[in-house]
Each structure stands twice: as C-alpha cells, then as structure tokens.
Write a structure and sequence with these properties.
3-stranded antiparallel sheet; alpha+beta; 10 helices
Length: 336
C-alpha cells in the first residue's frame, strides 16, 4: 500500500519501502490519515513523519548503548520493528493538527511573576532593667484552660486542608495504564505461571519480567513500549507469520497463553517429553489428538520363510528318469 510519507535520506527511503510492503491496513491508515490525540484538554489529529521516527530510533539505539558501551550495533530487522511500533503506537506524539487542518502550536507560556521577599523588621535592643531580674508572680490556672482542649488555629487548619488537596491532586493526575495493558495485567494475574503473548497489529508481544526471560532464551531484542505509565515497560515481539516457530521455542521452558487480535484467548501447555531408558534419548510423546488420528494399522514385513515357494515343474522330463530321481531324493523332490 502506498504511504503518504516524505523521504529526505536513503535510510528513510528504506524504512518507507519496508512499511509499504509489510504494514497492515490499520498502520497504513494511521500513517496516511493520522490518529486522534488528546493534549491540554483538547483533541487533535496526530500525524507522524519519517523525521520523527529517525529521532525515535536514535533514542532507542542510545538506550542500547547506555549500559557502559561507547556504541551500539543495531540490525536492520530491529530498526524495522521500531518503525512498526513508532507508527502503530497512539501515545507517541508526532505533528498535531487542529480540526480545520492547521498545525497546532501551543501558546507561549508567560514568565512567572517575581514575588518580592519582605524581610521582617529588626527589633530594637534595649537595656535590661531591675524588673527583668525579678521572678514573675505565679498566676493561678484558669478554669477549662487545659492544652488538650485547645482548638487548632486557622493557620493550622489551612495547612491541613492544603495537604489534603495536594494528595487529591496527585491521585487525579496519576497516570493509568492503557486499556490493552490493563487487560494484559488482568490475564497475567489469572495465569501467573504462564507467558502471555498478546497480538498487537502484525506482532505478538510479551511484557515485563517474562519479556526479559524470553529475550535471553529466544535470542530476541529486548526493547520497551509506552503503556501510559511513568516509565516504558520491557517488551519483546515477533511477527505473526513466524509465530509458530517462537511459540515452540517458548514452550520448551514455559506454558503459554496466546491473546489474538480479536480478543480470544488460547492456552498452550508445555509439550510433554519422554526418555528412552535404553538409549537415554529424549523425544516428544504423542498428543491425545495425534493418538486419535493414529489407527494402529502398521504393515509388518513378511517373513521370508512364509513366502510361497514355486513347485518344481517336471512335465518336460522323462517319466522313467523322474522315477529314478524320486527314488534317490525321496521326499526332497516334489513332482507335479
């Protein structure tokens, strides 16, 4: 499908060619028509460009080299995977457009007003007098004057209300995970001992600590995805057309739950294995379905001794000679 993407470099032309050949209809529609995007309480149309992707890819490559390395070698398939995620992810901000098609430009922020600090006036020091050295007379305690019964001052009440308002504001502004990741966490809670593979677009993706394990076991590049939280979540992904290969690799060490793009869930158990006690060879046992398909009809080789033997044809020989032969060989020669 042809994509409305402007290319400026040879690298951008390669990315565009890959997307035009492999992107799904959903991703192609997002690239050509944009997607809704909320910002500052308003809804805009979010359109992404190849310039924006190149900056995104540079940031991802920098993360690979951030573990003390001076450089990072990134394979083509990893960069192409970044391209699919960049144009598929709704939360990544590109160029925003208003409803009338004009580009959105936020209003410049006004400079904060400076508050002049007023220093308290210094009290004038005075010379002590004779009365300052005299002990004050003890006054009798007033009735109902206990400290425990004192009411808080207005200033203390204002401080308490300010703290409560600040906590409420934090709860209101706290980020929530995206809907698909909430569903992922819900399924992961129901299957704590399983690896959850969630199909998003043209890829199956695994998140969190399980993603770190699968990355090491299946030799997949560990990256991250923005799911609406403060930090990106560790993620590994593999294309749907090669899913069976990676499912088999994952099932060597884990049980697996697959969530398809239509929301259906499929549970796959770890394949059963058996050991030949004579040779020590490990092999997969037949599943119940394979056993049902097997009819048990095995054609055994026929014993050579059971094959019919052709009888000796003696019609062409002289009868007298045959009689002598029969007398010599006895029952070892059969005539017909």
């Amino acid at each position: 499908m042809r994509l409305n993407l402007e290319t400026k470099t040879k690298e951008q032309e390669l990315i565009k060619a890959y997307l035009e050949e492999n992107a799904s209809e959903i991703i192609s529609d997002k690239i050509n028509n944009g997607t809704p995007f909320e910002k500052d309480g308003k809804t805009f149309i979010n359109k992404k460009t190849l310039d924006g992707f190149m900056k995104y890819a540079s940031d991802e490559a920098r993360k690979l080299a951030s573990k003390g390395a001076n450089s990072a070698c990134v394979e083509d398939k990893v960069v192409y995977g970044w391209a699919v995620h960049y144009f598929e992810e709704n939360s990544i901000e590109g160029t925003l457009f208003n409803a009338d098609g004009t580009e959105y430009k936020p209003a410049p922020k006004s400079a904060p007003t400076k508050v002049k600090k007023v220093e308290p006036k210094k009290t004038e020091e005075r010379q002590p007098t004779l009365f300052d050295f005299m002990e004050p007379e003890k006054s009798e305690p007033e009735a109902n004057g206990d400290d425990e019964d004192e009411q808080p001052s207005q200033e203390e009440i204002d401080d308490i209300l300010a703290e409560i308002a600040e906590e409420e504001n934090k709860k209101a502004t706290q980020k929530r995970p995206s809907p698909f990741y909430e569903k992922y966490l819900e399924i992961e809670h129901s299957y704590p001992d399983y690896v959850i593979a969630y199909r998003l677009g043209d890829f199956y993706e695994v998140f969190g600590e399980k993603a770190v394990q699968i990355s090491e076991e299946c030799n997949l590049t560990l990256t991250g995805r923005d799911v609406g939280l403060e930090n990106r979540i560790p993620m590994v992904g593999f294309p749907y057309h090669a899913a069976e290969l990676y499912f088999n690799k994952i099932q060597r060490n884990h049980r697996l739950v697959i969530i398809n793009s239509d929301g259906t869930l499929k549970e796959l158990s770890k394949p059963q294995t058996a050991i030949n006690l004579d040779t020590g060879e490990i092999y997969d046992e037949m599943t119940e379905e394979e056993m049902l398909e097997f009819d048990g009809d095995i054609e055994e080789p026929q014993d050579i001794d059971d094959e019919p033997k052709d009888l000796f044809d003696a019609t062409a020989f002289d009868k007298t000679a045959l009689c002598k032969l029969d007398a010599i060989f006895g029952d070892k020669l059969t005539l017909r």
